[in-house]
Design a protein that fits this description.
Elements lengths: L7 E11 L2 E7 L11 E4 L2 E9 L2 E7 H6 L10 E6 L18 E11 L2 E7 L12 E4 L2 E9 L4 E6 L1 H6 L10 E6 L1 H11 L9 H6 L5
Antiparallel strand pairs: 1-2, 1-6, 2-5, 3-4, 3-6, 4-5, 7-8, 7-12, 8-11, 9-10, 9-12, 10-11
């Protein structure tokens, strides 16, 4: 599990493919030692670090991950948001993020709003799992949904200067794809409601049986 609070911005060194999988090499230097096999969110996608060579981190990536995320769009030198998995007792400063990317969105517009930035993203296939003022992870960054436009298939988030300057979001341009993970709790609630029985109408008899009427 992650929180959507980026700890470090690394740089993509290269991507190599072998059969159905690939390997990412990322240049990054964490303050605390890393252990082979630990999970790290790379632009919001939970990946397993298989090897560390100095300041180069190596990740094996399944073909499905490349197909369902925007990682395949990145060229050598591209900045990548990195976050190590939560340890027991760590503060939860953002929101619960699983690192399982639901899909991608496309940057439609980036506008200044005072010192903030407004990102408008197109993601029509994912809007059904989003709620205005709820949470969304954009390239692994925990943000609040400001506005949803179902007709246009877009969502809007505001990014404060600190987040903009300390993450790879600052490198985004209109037309870029981003990884999106909708709110974990919201998805479980929606799935639960989808499997519930058809609600029964409220009647006087039903209220009496429930003990609300004498």
């Amino acid at each position: 599990m992650f929180t959507g609070l980026v700890q470090l911005v690394g740089r993509l060194k290269n991507v190599s493919f072998q059969g159905e999988a690939g390997r990412l090499a990322i240049s990054a230097r964490f303050d605390a030692p890393l252990q082979p096999g630990e999970s790290i969110a790379v632009n919001g996608a939970c990946l397993t670090m298989v090897e560390q060579q100095g300041e180069t981190l190596l990740f094996d990536v399944l073909k499905e991950t490349f197909e369902k995320t925007a990682l395949r769009d990145k060229a050598p030198g591209a900045p990548l948001n990195l976050e190590r998995a939560l340890a027991m007792g760590d503060p939860l400063g953002g929101h619960l993020v699983s690192g399982h990317v639901d899909g991608t969105g496309t940057v439609m517009k980036i506008e200044p709003a005072g010192r903030d930035r407004i990102l408008r993203l197109a993601a029509p296939a994912l809007l059904h799992d989003m709620v205005a003022k709820g949470s969304v992870a954009v390239d692994g960054v925990s943000l609040t949904l400001v506005d949803l436009n179902a007709r246009a298939g877009t969502l809007t988030v505001h990014v404060i200067p600190h987040t903009w300057n300390q993450t790879a979001l600052a490198a985004l341009q209109p037309g870029d794809r981003v990884n999106l993970e909708t709110d974990l709790i919201g998805k479980y609630v929606r799935a639960s409601l989808g499997h519930s029985r058809t609600p029964q109408p409220v009647t006087w008899d039903a209220l009496a049986r429930a003990g609300f009427l004498d």
